[in-house]
Structures are given as C-alpha cells and as structure tokens.
Write a structure and sequence with these properties.
Shape: flat
Order of helices and strands: EHEEEEHHEEEE
Number of domains: 1
Number of strands: 9
Radius of gyration: 18 Å
Helix content: 10-25%
Distance between the termini: 23 Å
Number of helices: 3
C-alpha cells in the first residue's frame, strides 16, 4: 500500500463576534489564576489538508481552558485553490459537541445507568460514531474558492470534508 503525501492548502478562519480573540496569543496554556478569574477567552482555530487531487479536509475547533465556559462562535472558513475546481463535488460537515457524536451526553440523557438496558445501550451507541451536523451537500462544479459559514458551539469540533466525485 502506498501512502499519499498530504499537503496543506490556504485556509482562512475568520472569527465573528468573539471580540478579536484568537488562539494565537503566544501561549498554549493559561495560568490557573487566569482561568479562575474568567480572563481566558475562547479560541477558534483550524487546519486543513488535501491529497492534491480529489479530497480536502478542514478541521475547526472552538476551545477554552475554562472547561465550564459555553457559547457559540460564528465561523467562516474559506478554502482556496481547490485541486478539483470545476468538477462535481460533495461536502460533508461532521461535528463533535454536546449534541453530536457524544456517547457521554447520551449516557447522561439516559439517566447515567450503571448497567444500561439493551434499549439504553442502543441509544448510547447511536452517538458513539462521527455524526453529520448538516445534510450532505452536492455541487455540480466546485469553485476555485469555497466559502462556508456556520456556528460552532463551545466546546466543539467541526470536520469539513470536500470530495470530488
């Protein structure tokens, strides 16, 4: 089996409504005092990869060192130089958050059973895989630049998969 080399592509993640906060504030972690005092701002960041032919993946996350903080971020992702511009394509938007791809939330919703019944176990297992947060979209002709806007909860992760047909 031959492994393909993935290369990064130009991606712009614009934060709207987060009062200019950014994950690139010069530190990977914050002092406990900053978290306790509420001085820690939420962060939105992302990365992208392509195989250079027919597939692009963009991962965007909304995170805060204060694990109890919640909220929403309006996110715009602009993917430039799609390698399959002009070809038919599919867009899938997967999500991991409180409501998607989260078997722990399903277990809590089931009443935190110590020994789940078969029905409860089936309900929990439905949420253990990666779930779409929006219906799959199909396009007849991929643009050179694709711009997507969505809301991302805190905490939350979105995986955008753009694939040529």
């Amino acid at each position: 089996m031959r492994l393909r080399r993935w290369r990064s592509i130009g991606v712009l993640v614009a934060l709207l409504g987060l009062e200019g906060s950014s994950s690139w504030q010069g530190a990977w972690a914050h002092a406990p005092e900053a978290v306790e005092s509420g001085e820690v701002a939420p962060e939105v960041d992302g990365l992208a990869a392509t195989n250079g032919q027919d597939r692009v993946a963009v991962l965007v996350w909304h995170h805060c060192d204060d694990q109890y903080q919640t909220g929403l971020a309006a996110v715009t992702v602009e993917v430039r130089h799609l390698p399959f511009a002009g070809r038919p394509y599919r867009l899938r938007h997967y999500r991991i958050d409180r409501d998607h791809s989260n078997s722990y939330s399903a277990w809590v919703a089931a009443g935190r059973p110590q020994n789940p019944s078969p029905g409860q176990l089936a309900f929990i297992r439905q949420r253990q895989g990666l779930m779409l947060c929006a219906p799959e979209e199909a396009g007849e002709s991929a643009p050179e630049t694709l711009r997507l806007t969505f809301t991302l909860p805190l905490p939350g992760v979105s995986l955008l998969e753009i694939v040529a047909e």
